[in-house]
Write a structure and sequence with these properties.
This protein is an all-alpha fold. The chain has one domain (2-156). Helix 1 (2-38) packs antiparallel against helix 4, helix 1 (2-38) runs antiparallel to helix 6 and helix 5 (95-119) packs antiparallel against helix 6 (129-156). The chain is flat, with a radius of gyration of 18 Å. The protein contains six helices and no strands. The protein has helices at 2-38, 41-46, 51-59, 63-85, 95-119, 129-156.
Length: 157
Amino acid sequence: MARRRARSLRDASSRRWLLAAGLGSTAGALLHVVVALSGRADWVAFFRAPAIIVQSMRDGGWLGPLSGLAIGALMQIAGCYAFSGAGLLPRLPLLRTALIVLAAIGLLRGLLVPLSLAIQPALIARYQTFDWVATAIWGGIGLCFAMGSVKLFAQQG
């Protein structure tokens, strides 16, 4: 009985971490889709898209919206893998590999600004509040993927 309860608590812990990763990824996906479909170049610029994407939005071209939709789709796929690991969706192919890769991407993106400043402190003038917020969000989502994956793999043996 105690063993079953301990496993249930571990299951719940991995589910919570992966659920948080999935919700974060889904929120990011929705944000990218809304911005892409808005047609607003100022929104795209605010979210620090490359100049070619911003110009595409200004010109009414397809590159801006398609880029945003593609990134949104990739983020939603990440969310689906998190939800699959949490048991909310059927098991997706290569689940273990995908969760590890997604954790690594999130954690590396979360370390991007601090590491770049450690290597080249003069870059501090280049970074804005948005860069720090995005770094924290990505790092948090990466941490959720990592913690949920570790706990999930530990309970699977």
